[in-house]
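Aim 2, interim progress: modelling of the iron/sulfur cluster-bound target.
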Amino acid sequence: MAGSYEAMWEKLNLDLEAHAGLLEVLGKFYGDIYLSQDKRLRGMEYLDFVLSEIHGLRIKELQEAKAQGRKVVGTFCVFVPEELVYAADAIQVGLCAGAEAGFDKAEKILPRNTCALIKSFVGFKLSRLCPFFESCDLIVGETTCDGKKKAYEIFADYAPVYVMEIPQMKHACDRDLWKAEVLRFKEAVEKLTGRTITAESLKKAVRLINDRRRVLQRLNRLRAAEPTPISGRDVLLVNQVSFYDDPARFTQKISELCDELEQKIARGEGVADGAQRVMLSGCPMAIPNWKLPYIIESSGAVVVGEESCVGTRNTRDLVDESPDTLDALLDALVDRYMRIDCACFTPNQERLDHIVAMARELKVKGVIHYGLSFCQPYGIESFKVEKALRQAGIPMLTIETDYSMEDVEQLKTRVEAFVEMIR
Ligand code: SF4
Ligand code: SF4
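Predicted structure of the complex, ligand included:
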């Protein structure tokens, strides 16, 4: 890919040498973790292609769209209402923060004991490694946790940053705050794009994003079959790519993947004979954070669900499509996003209820709770998750890790012992 896109990357002011190194590592990692799998679905070729062209073709598309006057908005959190961005004919991309590249630079301005996700997004920007970052006309942050909130203040010196305030409780006054924030964001997007969001454009955008959620819901229903017809790693990748690719194309391609999955299920074919069904829960896993799913699926288990923002939290709830007025559609948007059960909320009983219900529906033998080191919201909430699951008779393993590979052997030993215990 490098040869044909170098001029574009240079124009985006990437550090070409460091970027080439990153692509090499990413390619090798992807080969080891993904391409080595047996009995993979043909439809995964689309994902392989998207990944192989992630800094190439997709960036070229974004640049072409920008040349036609469209704006690109980058985000880090599923709280940012994508529908408003598409309603103003802009494009939204989820900015990944799943690798250690750039940590040396990030640690010069952030405390070392900051979560890896935050160090990663700061590090990618400071090291000029990510063409998505460099393509963004606006980067939207949020006040979900203190680490992110304060990091965006520093980040604003390097990129055009807009921060949304996210409520931390779910009383009526919190909804009022969130509605005010959604309206403020609508104005910011209109100002950025020079377009006015109308009832028609918002309704169309709501359908576009709901369709993507619906196809992911379908995938989640199908993957729950026994025997498991698709690896957890592959479904994680589908979820990760959903943040980058064009929504309509993604929906179409994943719909084809689901058709293939249905045929596979009808033939009774599985991907992991005898593997124990487990569910992942906790912090989101951004590309290329595939370490833990790979360890789990190399230890006699298969991941059949992700209770995470790169998973069901992002797809579970749809926006009501029925209203016809702009005000009513905006209210529907506000209500849908208020249902997000991120650990930044207190109390957060909904998340505990969702985890137990999901574990039962998926008939898992155990749950693996994944928390990034130094992430207080998920780290502290894991105690309540464990208690809720224990009361439901479902064992849980708590894993706290980061993006380094140093603890792979230690994690493998713990995961293998857990799988042995639930067997
Ligand atoms: S876990 Fe919370 S802060 Fe992180 S992406 Fe999800 S909603 Fe946003
Ligand atoms: S993983 Fe935790 S600490 Fe890190 S950004 Fe997300 S909520 Fe904040």
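Residues 284 and 309 are 5 Å apart (CA to CA). The mean pLDDT is 96.
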